[in-house]
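Quick question: what would this complex look like in 3D?
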Amino acid sequence: MNRISKTTRSNSLTYAGVIAAFIILQIMTGTGSISSSLKGQLVPICAYVVMAISLNLTVGISGELSLGHAGFMSVGAFSGVVAAMSLQQAIPLAPLRLAVSMVVAGIFAGFAGVLVGIPVLRLKGDYLAIVTLAFGEIIKSIVNNLYVGVDGGGLHFAMLKNANSLGLEEGGKVIINGPMGISGITKISTFTAGFVLILFTLFIVFNLVKSRTGRAIMAIRDNRIAAESVGIGVTKYKLIAFVTSAVLAGMAGALFAMNYSTIVASKFDFNTSILILVFVVLGGLGNMWGSIIAATVLTILPEALRSFSDYRMLVYSIVLIIVMLATNNPLIKNFLGDIRNRLFKPKRNKKLEGGGTNE
Amino acid sequence: MKKFLSIALALVLIVGCFAACGTKTEPAATDTGADTGAATTTAAIKIGGTGPLTGGAAIYGNAAKNGAELAVEEINALGGLQFELKYEDDAHDAEKAVNAYNALKDWGMQVSLGSVTSKPCEATSAETFADRIFAITPSASSTSVTDGKDNMFQMCFADPNQGSASAQYIFDKKMGTKVAVIYKNDDVYSMGIYNTFEAKATELGLEIVSATTFTEDSQNDFSVQLTEAKNAGADLIFLPIYYTPASLILKQAKDMGYAPKFFGVDGMDGILSLENFDTSLAEGVMLLTPFNADSTDAKTASFVSKFQEKYGEIPNQFAADAYDCVYAIYQACNNAGVTADMSASDICAKMIEQFTTMSFDGLTGTGMTWDATGAVSKTPKGMVIKDGAYVGLD
Amino acid sequence: MTFLTYLIKGISLGSIYAIIALGYTMVYGIAKMLNFAHGDVIMVGAYICFYAMMSFGLPPVVAVILAMIVCTVLGVVIERLAYKPLRAAPSLAVLITAIGVSYFLQNAAQLLWTTNPKVFTSVVGDGSVKFFGGQLSISYVTIVTIAACLIIMVALVWFTSKTKMGKAMRACSEDKGAAQLMGINVNTTISVTFAIGAALAAIAGVLLCSAYPTLMPTTGSMPGIKAFTAAVFGGIGSIPGALVGGILLGIIEIFANAYISTELSNAIVFAVLIIVLIVRPAGLLGKQTNEKV
């Protein structure tokens, strides 16, 4: 009973934190006291936060290491932009068009999630990780060779040739031009949209975790055999977590893509997947609030380090290593544990220790 | 554990903030005076650009940055109009390019050099268009960079021009009857040139017997592509790619004992200055390029020697294009009477007017003009590599 | 004949993957970590060899040995500074640290050696052996690469099965706690494994750049990922598995390029990997473990 109320409280704190951050940033934007640099990063930060939360669902809650999460972002980004561009006339209202294209992006990414999930979830541990990496690369290759155009007769698709093979009518428009990606995207993503998407993502993830399904998913993570023996369908529940995660990643992809005038498939490569994984690990597995902070800080950090000019990425890598070493250093852990003991009731300490070491 | 993480992250954030504060105060002190020694009493026009200064494409970004830096130094030494230059890293990525652009905007950029590579430049050009900041890119050659943006100009040829010019050139000079093309499938530049080359070749009746591709992830082994070209009996291979993979293709062709003619585009320029490259491999390679570091005209010779002195390497066309960009801006500013205290949008209006009417002589061409779309008109020179040096083909 | 040429190309490319994969597989076997910085150690090895030959005019053999020494030291230093403190930490933390080290090496290389590509001079010289009246030519690099791969493989199998240190390695990879109780110094053993992996990376770097002579700070990353794939393909943790996985991957890559599609060759390589893993979830030669209840 006590435990449930605790998670509810931490969840509502997370909502409150996100809403407070949004309000503060909106006021700052309104009064003009925010730099262009930070303002320009608001939407990508939202997209990365959603990516981190959704990956945390796979890695933290479901316990499957995925190295191909950017693939779903890619599917979402491209399907979302295609939807937005072909609905340009049908839905003139930008926020509505964005919402519709995000739904389309989510559906496509979810579909990709099912396709990838069924074979992948039969595997375990690092083998699962490498297969997700492989799928990420395959998605990248396929999108790189995909041509999509729109004309009076609807959408046209082609693979591997070039845009001329689409056979568009007069006045038709090429949307995805293979490796050249999409050009001339109307920028309809806004910070508000990103904020709403974060809330939506949190809502979905928190409710999933709290539900019966969520408990089944975590039971499988903690002890697959025990979970199986009490009649939990392992593949089904793993797939639910994986596909939900893919859907959310797809929506983040659509949000991300429509913040820039151009997007290419090679953006969503292995490095992007790794970047998102770094957010998740640094923020703490299963800890959504941690993912939000880590995604935000690590997106701003390289920009904040611009004054180091040439040494920027070197400093970034050193910070990354030091943070990883520090957060796992027993001395520092104990030291902080002591502080915590003094600050909080000693009664809670035992529970926290138990929770902290089961990783 | 969770608490600790939040604290650690907060610390990182604070460090980051300090670093950010550093950015805002530093440039004024370091960027203006130190390098040139010019008097800092007169305010300078702030020119900013983004380019890949790190990562796989860093060579192009750094070349452009160095070229532009050299031009700014020369101009500031003249004592008239003063420039202040700042390049930010975009790691050849559209998202980071927009971040870099915003950082430059915070710095107070008045004129932009766009981005060095095409995709990032497409992203930043949308921003410069919306913010009414004039931009001229040294090397982003895709047409979607300038599409529908009245304040975006290019110093390099647009990709379609290169493709059709190459096909025309090969056809006119009867260099080959059976052409093979090896291009980079996931590169905007390479694809852009290939598509127009193919269209033009079909139109002219030039036979393309083999068209093979490679990607960023597979740019080591070209044995398959070369074997295919050889089996198809190609006597000329068109390489609309940058010189690094091209150098591998030349070597592997030689190892195979296959010696067709090779024809490149402006991305091929620089192959001779590749460190430790066996220039005999490039013997007889032809290319269309607007810039030639071995040219004997005074302007180029002085640029090359100064560049070598300062950076210890021979400049390539990226450096030359960026150098030209800065001088073109200088000329336009002087013509229009632009001063440092004008707002970016005022400068933008004046620059558009200048660029669409003026004619500019630079390293990469003489009598260059720009049309309203922002595309440059200059004639490419046909070059051939002989005894490790470029020689005019005509 | 074309087929044979492609096959030999594939084996040669695969041999390089195999040597890199060995580094992954040995470290994984003993430390249970994916050492993502391995690909960048390759790049460092190639740079050391390049500068030893070009700037100091050392003969190729000496340059290669020097590169091996530098990489070995580098490998041990990385292990001591970045990985050892995390021995008790969750494996994901180590993974992220390894990625941090990889970023660090790439960016440090960029600052030290600039981003301008260097053309690597082959350590075995240019030239080739001709067969069937010149129809089939095999370059010296190819021959040396394949030979080096086989020699390394035999040496490693001998080392792990016959020497004391090798046995200690196997014991550690089996059960660290029990190995320690038997008087094996686990930390030293892990360090030695890293040292061997890094020395192999230096050799792989030199061979890679001899065959494909472009050297940049990012040179190691793609071959690194491919070799990692190869290690998993063959069954990570298994030394013969790395050989089989590497060579198969090389052949599949070249054949996919030649007979299916150059655009999709990467996708095909990864698709084959997925199929193999679905049929054999622990790789081709990996140990199929039963779940303990």
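Answer marked as accepted. The longest strand of chain A covers residues 146-151.
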